Amino acid sequence: MEEIQRRSRLGLSKDERKQIEIEEGLESLSKYLDNWIKIPVVGWRFGLDALIGLIPNVGDTVTSLASFYILIAGVRYGVPKITLLRMAFNIGLDYIVGAIPLVGDAFDLFWKSNKRNMDLIRERGTGKGKGTTSDYLCKTRL
User: Fold this and answer.
1) What residue segments make up the domains of the chain, in order of their start?
2) Under 8 Å between Cβ of 26 and 73
3) Measuring CA to CA, which of 2, 30, 132, 133 is 20 to 30 A from 102?
């Protein structure tokens, strides 16, 4: 009887619900940072990363801190270290180029580091510890 009470209406245990909520929270964070607003005629999407990045010196720092939360989630989900390095490169490139006035603001509209990092977590978050060839190629570009 006690086991039945611990399960939700959908048949998920409390721990399973917690994992789903974490994933939904990460998806929401990524969406708000990179794809929150859609320009109707053109169809381009941008988020708080581009908007907050307009504030000189502070904007890119604040959005990078939010991006590091996604990087830390990659550690929790067992993403290989080489892929974590690639995720950090995505965040660093977004921060460095985003700090350049005007050019960085335009760059933030197109470079969606949080979406890229969420895709990497989804693809490689199995905990097997193996990076792919593209991860190693990204490392050699550094």
Assistant:
1) 20-141
2) yes
3) 30
Confidence (pTM): 0.73
Which amino acid is it at 141? R
Nearest-10 crossing angle of helices 103-110, 81-98: 140
User: Tens digits of per-residue pLDDT, 51-93?
Assistant: 888 888 788 899 999 999 999 999 888 888 899 999 999 999 9
Question: Which residues, in sequence order, are bridge partners of residue 101?
Answer: none
**Band of the pLDDT at 123, cuts 50, 70, 90?**
confident
Q: How confident is the model at residue 1 (pLDDT cuts 50, 70, 90)?
A: very low
